[in-house]
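As described in the Methods, two query proteins were run sequentially through the folding procedure within a single session, without resetting any intermediate state between them. The first query and its resulting structure tokens are shown here.
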Amino acid sequence: MSDFMKLDEAVEIVMELATDNVLDDSIIANDPHLSDEQARQETAIATVEDFFVNNVFEGVECEAMDSIELQDQKQQILKFSPPEENEDE
């Protein structure tokens, strides 16, 4: 058995592990202070996913990158992104 695998396969496994282990709502219900940590975890996952999609796997199909949950998180982050500056100004 090799100690290495293709990068897209490794990233897919890591992203799946990360998304599966984010604090879920049932845990937060018992401790509302954890909602900030849940949001931080989701933002971290979406940031890494966005980086890999736009910089490493651009144009490559990867199951973990196409998950609906990650796309929803990406959309949430994009809502809070600062507007791009207009070069004409």
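Immediately afterward, the second query was submitted; its sequence and tokens are:
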Amino acid sequence: MKGSIEPGEKILANTGKISLYGLKRNKTISRLVREANHDDMSLYVEPGLVIHEDDKIAVLSSSYDNEASDFKEVDYYFNETG
């Protein structure tokens, strides 16, 4: 994905003041509530997350393969059902 940051160990170091901007999230991590396969077009996560159309998400694998991850843009999210 163009402009993405490769997964792995990252550090943000600062010796002065730092300000982060954007929408405050009540939760930034979720687990899938249904199994997802490689060719699935939808992912099912828990309801009540602050996810909007065009948000970018990382889908990480539970394997030890650091290449087994993907990044996607959200098409839609149903807040009531996940």
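The longest strand covers residues 56-60. We note this only descriptively and draw no conclusion about the first query from it.
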